[in-house]
């Protein structure tokens, strides 16, 4: 389920062995933008499901450098100079994305939309002012301005040179551009194993293999543990979104700077006006009750049941220092992820850095966002990551068969590792209740009807098909 619809097109899957210069794994914003900038006919994209079916599918799609209070967080976890570099990269990336959309004449409902940051807690006013001070010191035109809706806040500030769009319309056009350039995109083609042989990578799908000189991981959370050790460098944040009807279109987006995050934007089609209400953001390790999280969003935005059109959740990676992880991880192997829920800007940034690295060109940002960097944030946050991984592993084992609806029995367990979901028609759907990624227990998400892993956010449908990584395997019963 998603607010963003993409035009349907006939897709192709890989049906024979091939050899390419660069294999891009993942068909979200990062993967397609990397292929666009690389512009190499001897490259291809493989996507396990369909283009845009990952985190990109349920993004709020605000193209902005006003990212709650990210710059003061980066300053305190690294230093001011790194925060300045990150700010510069985001301002440039907003411009780069807009230039690309205009140059290619991509119809994706792009609207210039002012962005606001605000706080709904009086005690956080000084934090808000600190962020605004940093932005002003770095030549950003930000001014005090009331929110255009009646929403509890103690102060709000706005910038004007930011945008909103429809990310799946954008991806569909980018797909067409790549097709016209003869760059192949193989959908429903999952990479399940990679081997290094004679200075090349051999990448296996279920039935075929791809030999590649370079590999780019554009898979969001990587499905492998080494060498990045992502669970010790980041956590996953889940947010809940409710899409409602709204009587009039308001051209602004806003986000509060304190936890839990609440954010909103509007979207208009020829026939309808929608409001995206996002809230109840939390580390997936510490909250598994989706029903309660959706209720919190309903209460916070005072949503009436009759206005609800869709409800869904989405997760993204939060890195220890709030900066993305972009660059080389091994010989001829690259990654771009860790966008801290700001992937519209960071995916284009990642695409440009990786293109330069593959083409052996200088890139002014490659050192700062190097995925193997170690700084004080890694040391400060290490105990937190150890605690959250251990906590989520243990609670996932305890809670894996808990039903949050006290009065409806939707599933039960057989033995230790088999769970059953009984659908509205009484049909039983049995799965193996163990995440293939690192062995955590899975918790049934009764709102979206899927099995979610609280540890690193893999997701499986009721029949056990993996619909979101890092797991690269299904949980079907053999
Ligand atoms: C609630 C929420 C709201 C957000 N709102 C905003 C916003 O307003 N503005 C903003 O800038 N950012 C926002 N973001 C962040 C942004 O949506 C993401 O960072 C971005 O979409 C990530 O894109 P991606 O291409 O890197 O990953 P994805 O879109 O997840 O793409 C990765 C793809 O890789 C594929 N894949 C995985 N493993 C394999 C494999 N083994 N073989 C082949 N394919 C594979 C997956 O199927 C998937 O399609 C938000 C994030 C969240 C969670």
Written overview of the protein:
With 478 residues, the protein is an alpha+beta fold. Among the domains are: 107-164 and 235-319, 2-Layer Sandwich (D-Amino Acid Oxidase, Chain A, domain 2), CATH 3.30.9.10; 400-468, Rieske [2Fe-2S] iron-sulphur domain (Rieske Iron-sulfur Protein, 3-layer Sandwich). The protein is built from eight helices and 26 strands. The chain has helices at 29-38, 70-77, 80-103, 125-137, 167-180, 290-300, 343-358, 376-399; strands at 18-25, 43-46, 62-63, 111-112, 115-119, 143-144, 155-159, 163-164, 184-186, 193-197, 200-204, 209-217, 234-245, 253-256, 263-268, 273-283, 308-319, 325-330, 333-337, 411-414, 418-422, 428-432, 443-445, 450-452, 459-460, 466-468. Strands 1, 2, 9, 10, 11, 12, 18 and 19 form an eight-stranded mixed β-sheet that branches. Strands 6-7-5-14-15-16-13-17 form an eight-stranded mixed β-sheet. Strands 23-24-25-26 form a four-stranded antiparallel β-sheet, with no helix packed on it. Helix 1 runs parallel beside helix 5 and helix 3 (80-103) packs across helix 7 (343-358). Bound molecules: flavin-adenine dinucleotide (FAD). Flavin-adenine dinucleotide binds at residues 25-31, 46-49, 53-56, 59-62, 190-191, 218-220, 223, 239, 278, 314-316, 337, 339, 341-345, 347, 469, 472. Flavin-adenine dinucleotide binds next to helix 1, strand 17 and helix 7.
């Amino acid at each position: 389920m998603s607010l963003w619809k993409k035009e349907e097109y006939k897709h192709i899957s890989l049906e024979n062995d091939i050899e390419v210069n660069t294999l891009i794994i993942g068909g979200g914003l990062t993967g397609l933008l990397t292929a666009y900038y690389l512009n190499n006919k001897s490259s291809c994209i493989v996507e396990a499901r369909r283009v845009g079916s990952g985190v990109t599918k349920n993004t709020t799609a605000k193209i902005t450098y006003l990212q709650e209070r990210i710059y003061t967080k980066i300053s305190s976890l690294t230093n001011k100079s790194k925060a300045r570099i990150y700010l510069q990269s985001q301002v440039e990336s907003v411009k780069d994305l807009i230039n690309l959309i205009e140059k290619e004449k991509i119809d994706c409902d792009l609207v210039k939309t002012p962005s606001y940051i605000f706080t709904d807690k009086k005690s956080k006013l000084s934090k808000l002012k600190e962020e605004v001070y940093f932005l002003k010191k770095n030549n950003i035109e930000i001014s005090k301005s009331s929110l255009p809706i009646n929403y509890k806040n103690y102060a709000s500030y706005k910038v004007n040179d930011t945008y909103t769009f429809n990310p799946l319309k954008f991806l569909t056009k980018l797909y067409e551009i790549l097709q016209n350039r003869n760059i192949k995109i193989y959908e429903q083609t999952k990479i399940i194993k990679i081997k290094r042989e004679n200075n090349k990578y051999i990448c296996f799908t279920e039935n075929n293999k791809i030999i590649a000189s370079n590999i780019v991981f554009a898979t969001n959370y990587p499905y492998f543990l080494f060498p990045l050790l992502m669970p010790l460098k980041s956590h996953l944040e889940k947010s809940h979104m409710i899409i409602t009807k709204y009587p009039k279109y308001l051209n602004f987006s806003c986000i509060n700077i304190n936890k839990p995050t609440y954010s909103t934007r509007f979207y208009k089609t020829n026939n309808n006006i929608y409001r995206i209400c996002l809230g109840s953001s939390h580390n997936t390790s510490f909250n598994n009750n989706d029903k309660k999280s959706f209720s919190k969003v309903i209460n916070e935005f005072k949503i009436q049941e009759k206005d609800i059109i869709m409800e869904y959740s989405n997760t993204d990676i939060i890195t220890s220092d709030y900066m993305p992880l972009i660059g080389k991880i091994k010989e001829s192997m690259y990654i771009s992820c860790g966008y801290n829920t700001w992937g519209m800007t960071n995916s284009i940034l990642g695409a440009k850095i990786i293109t330069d690295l593959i083409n052996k060109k200088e890139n002014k940002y490659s050192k700062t966002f190097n995925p193997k960097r170690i700084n004080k944030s890694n040391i400060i946050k290490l105990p937190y990551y150890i605690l959250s991984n251990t906590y989520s592993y243990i609670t996932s084992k305890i809670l894996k068969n808990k039903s949050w609806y006290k009065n409806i029995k939707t599933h039960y367990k057989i033995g230790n590792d088999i769970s059953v979901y009984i659908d509205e028609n009484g049909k039983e759907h049995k799965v193996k209740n163990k995440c293939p990624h690192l062995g955590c227990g899975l918790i049934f998400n009764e709102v979206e009807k899927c099995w979610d892993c609280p540890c690193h956010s893999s997701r499986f449908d009721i029949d056990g098909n993996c619909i979101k990584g890092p797991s690269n395997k299904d949980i079907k019963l053999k």
